[in-house]
UniProtKB/TrEMBL annotation:
Record family assignment: Belongs to the GcvH family.
Role, per record: The glycine cleavage system catalyzes the degradation of glycine. The H protein shuttles the methylamine group of glycine from the P protein to the T protein.
Keyword Transcription regulation: no
A GO cellular-component term linked to this record: glycine cleavage complex
PANTHER family found in the cross-reference section: GLYCINE CLEAVAGE SYSTEM H PROTEIN (PTHR11715), GLYCINE CLEAVAGE SYSTEM H PROTEIN-RELATED (PTHR11715:SF3)
Keywords: Lipoyl
Name the record gives this protein: Glycine cleavage system H protein
């Protein structure tokens, strides 16, 4: 399994990559493996401020639907259009082309409280 060290992680299996006062968020390699084949991603919070640990959308696999939780308080700016047409990108490239949303961070320092790659790897016992 892949755990890029430049990312921060949550116990709910989301990752976040900070880019200035914005960030890109997706689900981890571990999460996509657990879910199986992703068939649909539903995000209806674009333009809204969502609090840390609150649901910003759902991800649907062949056999289940799971909530997606925002790692930090932020405003959802955009959804990755590529996953609308090809949701399987979340499976094949979860840290690259399969990213889910871009957000504007309320407080970039909040990211510091999230898990490092090593901590997340220990969390999932990988």
């Amino acid at each position: 399994m892949n755990f890029p060290s430049e990312l921060k992680y949550t116990k709910d299996h989301e990752w976040i990559r900070v880019e200035g006062d914005e960030a890109v968020i997706g689900i981890t390699d571990f999460a996509q493996r657990e879910l199986g084949d992703i068939v649909f991603v539903d995000i209806n919070t674009v333009g809204e401020e969502v609090a840390a640990n609150e649901v910003f959308g759902t991800i649907e696999a062949v056999k289940t639907v799971s909530d997606l939780f925002l790692p930090v308080t932020a405003t959802v700016l955009e959804v990755n259009d590529a996953i609308d047409a090809s949701p399987e990108l979340v499976n094949t490239d979860p840290y690259g082309e399969g990213w889910i949303i871009r957000v504007k961070l309320n407080n970039p320092a909040d990211v510091d409280a999230l898990l490092s790659a090593e901590q997340y790897q220990s969390e999932v016992n990988a």
